[in-house]
Specification:
Its EC number is 2.4.1.-. One of its GO terms (molecular function) is glycosyltransferase activity. Pfam families: Glyco_transf_4, Glycos_transf_1. This is N-acetyl-alpha-D-glucosaminyl L-malate synthase. By secondary structure, this protein is of the alpha/beta class. It folds into two domains: 199 residues, Glycogen Phosphorylase B (Rossmann fold); 170 residues, Glycogen Phosphorylase B (Rossmann fold). 37% of the residues lie in helices and 18% in strands. The strands form three sheets. Strands 4-5-2-1-7-8-9-10 form an eight-stranded mixed sheet, sandwiched between helices. A six-stranded parallel sheet has the order 13-12-11-14-15-16, with helices on both faces. Helix 1 crosses helix 14. The longest helix has 19 residues. It starts with a strand and ends with a helix.
Length: 385
């Protein structure tokens, strides 16, 4: 099967999401996959005109699971970025249909997914819209949110099937008019995220003592991630053996650095920066409790369930998260997850957790989400279109 993926995120730079795991495993099963992506961090790059690029033989997770990434040209100027994206991605989708001749197109974006859905309908190619987030809410310019939602609505109408990563998102897309929907959960590599993995090397590398309790966060550091509030709470807390280990970068990184420096937290709040995905299990193993302290009232956090929660749980780690509706609906209570009202509450609740007992509960739940079963379902779903 030939599968064309369209998305408006950087396939190369961003940490693995649902689509990376699914597509690389589909390649290992003999399918051919092409990606049309978008350099979402274009403001950090030099130059105005970004020429079309083709990255062949790329894999992020699995050796030999090579996909081809096509990055259409854009004009990296604020007033021109979206018009250039629209035109270049439209041309690229048409080109790939002519040259690659996909059996199915799967959209993970907004603008290029809108385009792909219309072109696929015209060309009578099955189109699947896969929701792992409410993407129009992530558009930086809030004035474009209504237009983004309109494009999502059109893409939903043009889809043979709308897949979602959890039940809350399925409810959301049904409210937007989706009729044929299906939930395909996030998956976990249960061998890679092994609860028996030794985290001692990471603890030693970063000066973490045996008696220290480590709270761990990984991912993009959004301002709404709650980490700044939590770091400031560390400055007040009288628990020298409690550490906060943060792996990732993003919008809030410089603010976190400033908080750490101004409050002399260098030995308690450890900012590691971005790390390769294959090193992440070692960091999780080095932790005691994993956290997701995002603002519970943040609009874009209402319906999602980050895949990292499953990865934490697979390694037998209890999780503390704010009361995010999507997470609460997905996991409920008594599954190794503790809920708090606000980010600042994480520290006090950490001392109430039985790490071993809650960790076993978390692992037991995660065992039902092995990637092989998830890919089986995804592959079967595409073949039935």
């Amino acid at each position: 099967m030939k599968i064309l993926i369209v998305q408006e995120s950087d396939w190369i730079k961003r940490n693995p999401h649902q689509q990376h795991h699914l597509m690389e495993r589909m390649v290992l099963r003999g399918h051919e996959v092409k990606i049309i992506d978008y350099p979402i961090d274009w403001k950090e790059d030099d130059g105005v005109r970004h020429r079309r690029r083709v990255i062949k033989g790329y894999h992020k997770i699995h050796e030999g699971a090579d996909v081809e990434v096509v990055r259409p040209a854009i004009l990296a100027v604020p007033v021109l970025i979206y018009p250039s994206l629209y035109l270049s991605h439209k041309h690229e989708i048409q080109r790939q249909i002519k040259e690659f001749k996909p059996d199915v197109i799967v959209g993970f974006g907004v603008v290029n997914t809108y385009l792909a859905s219309k072109i696929a309908r015209k060309e009578r190619i099955p189109f699947v819209y896969y929701w792992i987030d409410v993407l129009h809410k992530l558009i930086p310019e809030r004035g474009f949110h209504p237009l983004g939602k309109y494009m999502e609505t059109v893409a939903i109408k043009n889809s043979q099937l709308v897949l979602t990563i959890n039940q809350k998102l399925e409810e959301y897309v049904r409210n937007m008019g989706a009729v044929n929907t299906k939930v395909i959960d996030a998956g976990i590599d249960l061998e890679e995220f092994d609860p028996n993995l030794d985290g001692t090397p990471v603890r030693r590398e970063y000066g973490i003592k045996d008696e220290d309790t480590v709270l761990f966060f990984m991912g993009f550091l959004y301002h709404f991630a709650g980490l700044k509030e939590l770091a400031l709470e560390f400055a007040k807390a009288e628990h020298p053996n409690l550490k906060l280990l943060i792996v990732g970068d993003g919008d809030a990184y410089s603010d976190l650095q400033k908080i750490v420096e101004e409050n002399h937290l260098e030995d308690r709040v450890l900012l590691i920066g971005r790390k390769p995905y294959n090193e992440i299990p070692g960091f999780v193993a080095a932790s005691d409790i994993c956290i997701l302290p995002a603002y519970p009232d943040e609009e874009i956090m209402q319906d999602i369930v980050p895949i990292k929660i499953y990865e934490y749980m697979a390694m037998g780690k209890p999780v503390i998260t704010t009361e995010l509706p999507g997470v609460m609906a997905e996991f409920g209570n008594e599954n190794g997850i503790t809920y708090v009202k606000k980010p600042e509450d994480v520290i006090s609740r950490a001392f109430d957790i039985d790490v071993e007992v809650d960790g076993r509960k978390a692992r037991k739940l995660a065992e039902g989400n092995d990637w092989e079963g998830i890919v089986d379902e995804f592959e079967r779903t595409l073949k039935q279109l």
